[in-house]
Design goal:
Two copies of one chain form a homodimer. With about 120 residues, chain A is mainly β. Chain A contains one helix and eight strands. Strand 5 of chain A pairs antiparallel with strand 7 of chain B, so a sheet runs across the interface.
Chain lengths: ~120, ~120
């Protein structure tokens, strides 16, 4: 069946969450949002493209930072309301310069920072 | 710093997305939603507990199906608006009886089912 971005289920703002996962290591890097056009652009260009809710604009990941996400494979879930992008991530995915945005763990009731910014 | 579920950023409905990842294999299993009480219950009980948007009720994963998610570690992202739960998943995470909800890939413009229900 041909994939049509408009067949996904978007929220009231026209957005769908997309998890970015490192294709090689399986590390979950980040979660951001796409609209139907961002999904289409991601597939057309192979460059993972989100919709920035704060800037209300397309966000071609790495366009200014150089920390590009190349799409390896896009997957959708059973409810068609969440995406999983397997990516080749150049450098850090996080704006704090860490590889992953999920660098804080809850351990014994405390927040613990478990990874440091990349050199 | 002590972790306080109310310190997370919830959406207008009081919810935050939570990615469940297999602790052992790194496979991304599903994404569902939690409210602050569900976050607290997950940490207190070690049983991953979502908020079901369709039922408007707590959803203790596996309570009826037996496909329990035991929490190994809860992580939060840099913006505090997304959670990552590392879990021990008993059986399938997906209601289709597949291990992961992300069993459909987009390949050369087509939707391709890449995993089958568990026996």
């Amino acid at each position: 069946m041909a994939f049509d971005p408009s067949s996904l289920k978007y929220d009231a703002a026209g957005l769908i969450p997309c998890i970015a996962q490192d294709h090689a290591t399986g590390e979950v890097l980040m979660l951001a949002w796409m609209n139907a056009d961002a999904v289409a652009r991601t597939l057309e260009t192979g460059r993972v493209t989100y919709w920035s809710r704060s800037r209300a604009a397309f966000w071609i990941k790495g366009e200014t930072s150089g920390h590009v996400q190349r799409l390896v494979e896009l997957r959708l879930d059973c409810d068609r309301d969440c995406l999983l992008a397997l990516v080749n991530q150049t450098g850090p995915a996080c704006h704090t310069n860490r590889r992953s945005c999920f660098y804080t763990a809850v351990r014994e009731g405390d927040e613990v920072v478990i990874s440091q910014p990349m050199a």
